[in-house]
Design goal:
- The complex is a heterodimer of chains A (110) and B (115).
- Chain A is mostly beta strands.
- Helix content of chain A is 0%, strand content 52%.
- Chain A has no helices and twelve strands.
- Chain B has no helices and eleven strands.
- In chain B, strands 2, 4, 5, 6, 9, 10 and 11 form a seven-stranded mixed sheet that branches.
- Classes of the chains: A mainly beta (110), B mainly beta (115).
- Chains A and B meet through strand 5 and strand 6 of A and strand 10 of B.
Chain lengths: 110, 115
Amino acid sequence: GNSVTQMEGPVTLSEEAFLTINCTYTATGYPSLFWYVQYPGEGLQLLLKATKADDKGSNKGFEATYRKETTSFHLEKGSVQVSDSAVYFCALRGTYKYIFGTGTRLKVLA
Amino acid sequence: DTEVTQTPKHLVMGMTNKKSLKCEQHMGHRAMYWYKQKAKKPPELMFVYSYEKLSINESVPSRFSPECPNSSLLNLHLHALQPEDSALYLCASSQDRWLAGAEQYFGPGTRLTVT
């Protein structure tokens, strides 16, 4: 079946550090892939998406590339800010529903 | 407008109460979803409506009863809940349930506490 695996958190970084959050998936076919962010006490917000192999999604300085050969969709940002502190969910759109990873909590220190 | 609204923001109810959660979107989306999210966990799918018809029920107990009165509104009726049902309930919508690549838009959620 379809599944998403994310790196365990929490991830703690200093401001302006480089961020990578790993995400790998198992799926039949070519699912669309997403990163969502959830700030404390709020719902999920779409951060970026990619719909086919080699697509790069980007938004607000975050990027992720759909790698079919490694079944990965790692999230990166060159310089994190305190305001990026949140929980990040990798997700794929399966046959009939969206599958979410377990989430990775990011804490950025000033 | 890419907003999904949910009311109420917080709800405390006893195990014998009946209450309803409301969700609204005006993006013309034809798929709407209810999720349950426990602390430090990902959202768990409960129900999917497609073109106002119930499309998926993920084996949710009957004390949760969804309703889709029209294409913009989604309700979740609650009755005889248990303390373990306390969670954040999220509503989401997408353009079409079958459209590849369609992202979901989430509301801010209703924080439910069952006493």
